[in-house]
Amino acid sequence: MKHLLKLQDLSREEIIDILNLADQLKFERKNNIPHPILQGKTLGMIFQKSSTRTRVSFEAGMYQLGGNALFLSNRDLQIGRGELVQDTARVLSRYIDAIMIRTYSQDEVEYLAEYGTIPVINGLTDYAHPCQVLADLMTIREIKGGFHGRKLAFIGDGNNMANSLIVGCIKVGMSISIGCPKEYMPDSEIVAWARENGDFTCTEDIYEAARGADAVYTDVWASMGQEEESQKRRRDFAGYTVDDKLLECAKKDVTVLHCLPAHRGEEITAEVLEKHADEIFEEAENRLHAQKAVLVKLMAPDYTKDED
Ligand code: CP
Ligand code: NVA
Questions:
Q1: Pocket of ligand 2 (CB under 6 A)
Q2: Active-site residue, from 259, 276, 289, 291
Q3: Atom of ligand 2 lying closest to residue 160 CA
Q4: Which letter does DSSP use for residue 127 in this model?
Q5: pLDDT digits (tens, 9 = 90+) for 159-205
Q6: Is 163 exposed, middle or buried (0-12, 13-18, 19+ CB in 10 A)?
Q7: In Å, how far are 167, 236, 302 from 130, measured between CA atoms?
């Protein structure tokens, strides 16, 4: 694994390997066992959109691994004044050891990887959010004990989260169903791939989507960059709220997940969010552990536990 650009690029084994290392790093952190695996290494973090979890978990994660992280906002970088990402990639490659980028276009992330000589991590694009889904899979495995025979239902916009969840769930052998309005389907190539490669359904009927689900997942109706569509989307997604009635269709011990930030009263009710807060905030915590595993895999690929 040279980069983390999208989950399509990872094999099932690579995903499981990351999750296993994430579990180990979580255990070590909980038990105050230091793991300075990335001593002397620097991660550059380019943000063209806002972030709480991604920014803080990557920055804290690098620190905990003995390295250093640079927050590079669009406002301060020359990228914000039109310098090409291709040039930025070649410059940063000479100073630092890896780049994490959060931006709009997936192409920009792929260009960074193509033109740079260091690992690139996708910290969210309009197309994908692979770091979040690694943390989601880690959380599901932690709570449910495994993936086999498990079903995840995603309710809402067929956005970056839906795209990455489809790929992630199918890669690890879970079933996935999407409940979304027809005009808001996930990426058509991902849908076609999912139909070929796994147990995948997509329906406008959210009750059908949630039937028998082990995990129900939702995300905002208007993603970053779609703020001006918020009102229209509120109308279009009416009836697509994860509430107690919907959860009655799922398994009794259903886990509710949300990548956050959440809009209570829109994609999820305040009641459901609070009832499932332990799961949702464990999921947020797991961003830290899963990303640290990704950082180790990319920046210290030869690391094994015995080297500690
Ligand atoms: N879930 C997530 O990526 O959160 P942030 O936007 O706060 O980074
Ligand atoms: N779909 C959301 C996810 C935020 C983590 C967005 O792109 O804004």
A1: 124, 159-161, 219-220, 223-224, 259
A2: 259
A3: 1
A4: S
A5: 999 999 999 999 999 999 999 999 999 999 999 999 999 999 999 99
A6: buried
A7: 9, 27, 22
